[in-house]
Amino acid sequence: MSLNTxxxxxxxxxxxxxxxxRPEKAGELARFAAQTPGPAIGARRAYGDAALSSIRPAVQTxxxxxxxxxxxxxxxxxxxxxxxLSQILKVLSPRGWMPPVLPGTGYATLGGAIAxxxxxxxxxxxxxxxxHVRGVRLIGPDGTARQITAESDPAxxxxxxxxxxxxxxxxxxxxxxxxxxxxxVDVAERRxxxxxxxxxALTASxxxxxxxxxxxxxxxxxxxxxxxxxxxxxxxxxxxxPRHKPPKPVPIDAPGFALSPxxxxxxxRLYLARIPKAGRRRTRxxxxxxxxxxxxxxWNRLYGKRGFHQFQCVVPPDxxxxxxxxxxxxAASRLxxxxxxxxxxxxxxxxxxxxxxxxxxLALDIPNRRGAEDLITGLLDRCAAAGGRVYLAKDSLARPxxxxxxxxxxxxxxxxxxxADPERVFETDLARRLALRGAP
Amino acid sequence: xxxxxxxxxILGASSPMARAFARxxxxxxxxxxxxxxxxxxxxxxxADLTIRGAAVDVLPxxxxxxxxxxxxxxxxxxxxxxxxxxxFVGAMPPQEDIEADPTRLSGTVTDNFSAAAAFLLHLxxxxxxxxxxxxxxxxxxxxxxxxxxxxVYGAAKAGFQTxxxxxxNRMGRAGIHVLTVKPGFVDTxxxxxLDGLFLVATPDAVAADIDRALTKKRNVIYTPWFWIGxxxxxxxxxxxxxxxxxx
Lengths: 440, 247
What we know:
The complex is a heterodimer.
Chain A: E1 4-9, E2 16-21, H1 26-35, E3 40-41, E4 58-60, E5 67-71, E6 76-80, H2 85-92, E7 97-98, H3 110-115, H4 123-126, E8 133-139, E9 145-148, H5 154-160, E10 169-176, E11 178-179, E12 184-192, H6 195-204, E13 209-214, E14 226-233, E15 248-249, H7 261-273, E16 280-285, H8 286-290, E17 296-297, E18 308-315, H9 320-333, E19 340-345, E20 359-367, H10 372-385, E21 389-390, H11 400-406, H12 410-420, H13 429-433
Parallel strand pairs in A: 2-4, 3-4, 15-17
Antiparallel strand pairs in A: 1-2, 5-6, 6-10, 7-11, 8-9, 8-10, 12-14, 12-16, 13-14, 13-19, 18-20, 18-21, 19-20
Helix pairs in contact in A: 9-10
Chain B: E1 7-11, H1 16-27, E2 31-36, H2 39-51, E3 55-60, H3 69-78, E4 83-87, H4 95-100, H5 104-130, E5 133-138, H6 151-171, E6 176-183, H7 203-215, E7 220-223, H8 227-236, H9 239-242
Parallel strand pairs in B: 1-2, 1-4, 2-3, 4-5, 5-6, 6-7
Helix pairs in contact in B: 1-7, 3-5, 5-6
């Protein structure tokens, strides 16, 4: 199969690799897996090197995006790994079903959602994506595909959920969709004056969906101020819904000053001021609420050609002091962009390498400028010390010792991989950087 | 939309453009007949399109096997309502390979021109009898002028486009709309990893352009639209200069 040798990157555009196949038919994927097996990648919405393979050619599954079977009574859906979650939402929400968990971008594929065990705005109720997976058709290093479930292969199945693609190529998967009672949500937005008020409100919130936007430039008493969004499915009949507009592309790489500190500070102040002091309520289409940034295609170009990093961690509920310190360090660095998110997480996780744990998760976008690496390394150290962990799908700067401290089940995961892929055929750049497979 | 669902016969249904086109038809609730070589893979498309709202059949079709036409035509005849056809078949073997082995020329012409044209000629009386319907024929900007890199492919596409022009002249009288589609670079396996491409369109953008052109009953479209400008310039270059160019 012909390889594309052009450099491809993670979503943050800092790290890259080359050599990709992109089959358009199931038979072509089978041939690739039998002849030149390598790791599978999806829509490359992972920020760092999770979807990069510098040694063996990767196989990009985005053209294998077909829904294979759907039971309208139970909501069980089987689909090829390259199916974007937005397609499932678009086609099946009018029929009353939706993906049980939606990450911040609908471009993420089914295979990617499983491999990263993604979480959404309903994590405290619904758990992570992997806990809704009923079966996976997994292609092993010898090129043969087989159906695995929690019953048939408990260790391999669990390791595949959140396993960052290291257990094999996900060819297709069967998932349990969630009921979708309405095509809109009613969103309530409230201003949060500072971090402790924010954390209290997140803890107290019982909304089906909740997410916080945080002003990562604010300091002092205003540190951690932001907006809390809580949403419920619309219950009244025929709500007025603004028409959903098709995504607009970002045509060029933005210049460096676009996200300079004064611009970001001004933007954040205006963004916060949009919300009246008394809060506001709006009815939003599902896509607009779940995937606000998808309205701007290739928004990663806003960071210019040097790209950016994302740091996302979760810390235990009582580690609020660590969150306070991380936010102070981030604000003091004057490096943060307007994209900063604070969320409450429940305990739900599916596999040994799954990111979620009970607590609070903080995500910061940081342009790749001088000081960015030092800032993020400092945040990683603080996160590890606080008993938290970093999200592998976002990471590009952690070290093996960080991961060993953060993921207590790493040894069991390695054991499973030694059996599933002894030759390390599916090892990605992320796995090499973080020694997820252990010493070579 | 009428009460009887529209029937669309899609030749070369595995191509990404055909897939995107079929998904749009499925959203309208059409009946689809997917034709191609890899029927095992087309069964997966059929499952997908059924979930999206279509009624789907899969039939084998091979440009090199004229006998594969009969079952498709029989299935078309059995369909109620207007019969529409969209032809996405095509293959672009490297020009050097054809130069090294000129016997490959006739296969290239079959894949890109004569097999599809034969199908449309056979289908024509069935379409005409229903008095309404459409034909979508996918050519290529490469058919507008023969050039160093792919002139056998280009010549076959040019033949198909000329055929479609005449077919439009004939079928228009019977109420059948014939649309010629000339895509530029499209992001498919044909272009995956090729150097020197620019302004590459997604298959879905091409399908969206075809949709619009069907609604507006256009005759010939370039997709994306700006290729009309590029090709106008390329066609205007005098032959004595063009023969020395590497375009």
